[in-house]
Amino acid sequence: MLFLQSVTLRLCTTFITLFGVALIVFFVIRVVPGNPIAMMLPPGATEADVARLTALYGLDKSIPQQFLIWLSGVMQGDFGNSITTKQPVLQLVLSRLPATLELSVMALCIAIVIGGTMALTGTRLRGSKTEAAIDIGNGMALSVPDFLWGLILILTFGVLMPVFHISGRVTPSLALPFSTNFYLTEAALRLRFDLWLDIAAHMFMPALALAIPLAAIIGQLLKQSLKETMHLDYVTLARTKGYSETHVILHEALPNAILPTLTLVGVQFTFLIGGTVIIERLFSYEGLGNMAIDAVINRDLPLIQGIVILFAVIFTGVNLLVDLTYAALNPRLRHA
Amino acid sequence: MKLNRRALLQLSAASLSLTALSLPVRAQAIEELVIAYNVNLPAWDPTTGPSAVNPTIQGIYQSVFDQFILQQPDLKPAPGILTDWGWNDDKTQVWMTVRDGVTWHDGSPLTAEDVAWSLARVADPATGSPIQFVWGTLTNHRVEGNKVLADVAQFDPTIFKWMYFLTGYVLPKAYYTSVGAEGFEAAPIGSGPYMVEKFERDAFVRLKANAKYWGGAPAFETVTIKFVTDAAARVAEVESGNSHVTLEVPYEEYDRLKATLTGTATPISDIGMIFLNDIDVMLDPNVRKAAAHAIDKQTIIDRLLKGYGVPIDTLETPEYDAYDASIKVPYDPELAVKLLADSGYSVDNPVKFKIQTTKGFKPKDYEMIQAIVGLWRKVGIEAEIETYEIAKHYELRAADQLAPAAFYNWGNSVGDPTTSTGFAMFGPSPHSVWDGQDLIDMIGPLWGEKDEAKRIDGWKKVDAFIAENALVIPLLQYVQPILSAPGVVVTPHASGALLPYLMKRA
């Protein structure tokens, strides 16, 4: 019963949060300087032309009126049309979401692999020069922002050693037999490894740029947890049984030490999606972040609203999932 | 398997080799021309919405669609879809002759009916064309054989120039009306040198040559235009060989790469200028004139833009119809000091005002304003810099709320004085912040002047008046840097449009 109450309460607060985000975004983007009509006015436009275009895009009504019209559309699944592309906003953002999700997931996987390797190696070789080198590497990875990593990667693997693609998501000349926009996933499922390789070669550098700072966080936290765990009695007992140090780390210490890191990874994933905005722009990657920047530059109000709402849904959705999982796992709530 | 150092190295090498298989090969002859373009293409209809008035994407539109009249690389008009055009004697009607034998990309013939429909469509306010105020000056469009006629509701001497300017495109009547606006966005067809084969929004457009193009088949069978909005990524694209052509790269990178790649840097129709708003201290002619004479434009171009720019003293560039080389506003700091002294200002008692500028919207925009503020300080002007986004500039300018001075860039790819000096300086225009009645009185009669020589001469007089009274500060004509691989020859277009059709094999 308590579990059900908790779920209901959480769902209610999620909807209130989303409504609040929608309200704030709608009003703020209309109050900040720069309106889309002024941006499309050609030289020589008269006051009448301004009024005509303003009415054409429904911006002649009061902001509360515009909000109510927009909200009633949203309730029916209509987020309006983009001013610049003239396409339905919902269709546009949903078509870009898979690209961003695949990039974020790839970045997360790379971060886990690099961060995990660094943590395990640092723990295994604690006190050695290798651990010091890993700590220095972690510090550098954290100090340099992801877009700078992107530029370094472009220079290194795009220009000096042209191994990976610099821009885009797939080579334009390739025919794509896909029915969804989850290119990487669908290429694997269709066993089209030629396409998979091309898509991965496009995604690798932006994903790595996103992953490096996160890998450092994961590496630091996991190494710290492992070090603490290594001093616990059951680990000492394992050692006295004659297990090797590597076995002790991997089979005794890691299962317990990894829990705080896993929680962090869940939280960081939402931040990772936020970080795609700059990286997608740098690598001309056709995701949600790249679209968001264009929408802001062009003051495409309906599209900005749609993208922000989608980001909010992802953030609150992930948080809701975490909370529900916690509630489901918590015996006090589960059995109440 | 035991993973030792050697095995790890072998695995890494294998992975890299596999990845490299999917990459373009730099040294091969160009089969498919790849262009790293500096902006995204949001929509395909070249006549409605914000994209229609975005000068930077006109090059893509012009690859797929024909304009009514062809514009040559030097900005001059030439026969295109219209082979001949003009007014009747009393200028109450226009007539246009439509080229025979032109086909749309679907193979159907382009007729005078298409031209008349295209003109009537953008003249209809319901279509949503931002340039309706121009097209609406023609009414009652009708077809007689291969001629299109229309009545002149309001005489506009530039109407035929708009036919190779923003929104001046011929669209296929039958196709558009059958598929609708949405269908046209999904599968656009035109009569231009290239056909759209594949379009991934925010990523690329792949074009196939129109072998039946009336102007002759393009040199490259396939052209891919990648939308690479970041300048550093564009440089990397051409440097790595992933793209063959790119534009709008930093001048420092252009200088570095033109040794290994082919570089063209020619003046285009964009200019940099400082709007002066007739408020506060800008009402004092001495302050305005001092501000204009204190700027050493050539040195700024040499130091900040590596010499890539042409100083200008009016809002007309040498390619424009009303350019008058005799109008000069020389760099003269002594004169600036004297002018300010006449109004009671000096280095110790400087005149103060705000100057607004974008930062990074145009090459070295903020740095140029910093340099200008430094030069002004030496003569007794203390200007405070405020940076803003270009969107804010548009809004403030439309509301006549710009600061006393505001940096901006103005494009005028048809080179007519109405679309440069006219719209920028005519008080009632939403794009002008100078509202002086004397200037309004000078410009007013020129809008409808039917004698072309008299009209151009009138604009030259306006430019001279503006320069004499320092009502605006023209700074420079921009130079567009284009980098290309050795296998391709690029012909630059003074409008700034990068046209694949003008690219040939070396």
From TrEMBL, chain A:
ABC transmembrane type-1 domain residues: 97-326
Residue intervals passing through the bilayer: 7-32, 103-125, 146-166, 199-222, 257-283, 303-329
Primary localisation category: membrane
Listed InterPro entries: BPD_transp_1_N, MetI-like, MetI-like_sf
One of the record's GO molecular function terms: dipeptide transmembrane transporter activity
GO cellular component: plasma membrane
Keywords (A to Z) from UniProt: Cell membrane, Membrane, Transmembrane, Transmembrane helix, Transport
Leader peptide range in chain numbering: none
Subcellular location: Cell membrane
Membrane topology of the entry: Multi-pass membrane protein
Family: Belongs to the binding-protein-dependent transport system permease family.
Name of this protein: ABC transporter permease
Species for this entry: Cypionkella aquatica
Automatic annotation (TrEMBL), chain B:
Keywords, in A-Z order: Signal
InterPro entries listed in its UniProt record: Peptide/Ni-bd (IPR030678), SBP_5 (IPR039424), SBP_5_dom (IPR000914), TAT_signal (IPR006311)
Keyword Signal: yes
Residue ranges of domain Solute-binding protein family in the record: 76-421
Any GO BP: peptide transport
Main location as per UniProt: periplasm
Signal peptide: 1-29
GO MF term set: peptide transmembrane transporter activity
Annotated compartments: Periplasm
Superkingdom of this protein's organism: Bacteria
UniProt record similarity statement: Belongs to the bacterial solute-binding protein 5 family.
UniProt protein name: Peptide ABC transporter substrate-binding protein
